[in-house]
């Protein structure tokens, strides 16, 4: 018969394994946030087409579109696809067109017989673009610097097809905003460091670029057209490689979006992201899943051993080392992404533990829910 002490010993070894797995993730992958993305020398500036798909975004277009149009760059166009909006978007865009000669607007009419997502609007914008390099952002994004295009295009070299940038959320008061910004920073740590390791698996449509020829050569969004989401991360997951993908981390290249205002809206957004995650390449799902699984084991088994194991110093030492690595990476990422906030680091210690459980509950509720929300974005 197995004794309680033997059970605790088994738990101890599993805890060591989970902790070791976590340490490997931080020392091999996430620590790369301290490095600098490689850049090739460029002698000429590349013409750029900025594409924005917008549906009922009149207020955001009024506030944020000028930050795109007033970029310090000689050769660029901005294409806004007004996707069946029934607000003041058309009037606002016409006003901007009178002031900015490089703004082009194309519209998708409302079709009561056919419901479409953002991918159709983006495809229309891509077809309308006159340049090879396409730079994407959203209507609710403010561009942090008028050097955004300049910094992103520095990566548009001969062998590059995809460029990943950072898209954060505008800082506001409140717990939800803090959670969203922390979640965004951690996700960025993952997709940025994986790309720097040579394993790009996703990007964010708030700030990314790719070649028009790459889009059509790989049949655009055809493989996941039925999914309402995934125009950014699934396209990257299917087409990004070690050789054709670059990362831009200069502060001038960042964008920031308006965050969700209610927990229910944020949960809906997370559910939509989960629908795309299951379509990632198998190796990416395994690597991402192992990090989450080992983190859950690490915390759960630490709590058990902290209560029942008779040598707490060893347990707390292992726990402390992993948390030290975590703190260093989060602090560095927050500094790089200009997300400096004591609250962000503090909420991180809590959310790092609860996030896998929150994600599991959201995913479970999604599977159990019979109601499907038809969200454009």
Per CATH, the superfamily of the largest domain is Spore Coat Polysaccharide Biosynthesis Protein SpsA, Chain A
Strand order of the largest sheet: 3-2-1-4-8-6-9
* Rg value: 22 Å
CATH architecture name of the largest domain: Alpha-Beta Complex
CATH class value of the largest domain? Alpha Beta
Average pLDDT value? 91
Count helical runs: 12
CATH topology of the largest domain, what is it called? Spore Coat Polysaccharide Biosynthesis Protein SpsA, Chain A
Order of helices and strands: HEHEHEHEEHEEHEHHEEHHHH
Our count of domains comes out at 2
* Uncertain stretches of 5 or more adjacent residues: 370-374
Largest sheet: 7 strands, mixed
Q: Calculate the terminal CA-CA distance, rounded to whole Å.
A: 56 Å
Shape, principal axes of CA atoms: elongated
Instruction: Please state roughly what percent of the residues sit in beta strands, choosing from under 5%, 5-15%, 15-25%, 25-35%, 35-45% or over 45%.
Output: 5-15%
Structural class by helix and strand composition: alpha/beta
Based on DSSP secondary structure assignment, what is the total number of beta strands? 10
Helix content percent band: 40-55%
Ordered list of secondary-structure elements with their pairings:
Blueprint: H1 4-29, E1 48-54, H2 58-69, E2 76-83, H3 89-99, E3 103-108, H4 118-128, E4 133-136, E5 141-143, H5 148-153, E6 162-164, E7 167-169, H6 175-197, E8 208-211, H7 212-217, H8 233-239, E9 245-247, E10 255-257, H9 263-277, H10 282-308, H11 312-336, H12 342-368
Parallel strand pairs: 1-2, 1-4, 2-3, 6-9, 7-10
Antiparallel strand pairs: 4-8, 5-10, 6-8
Helix pairs in contact: 1-10, 1-11, 2-3, 6-12, 9-12, 10-11, 10-12, 11-12
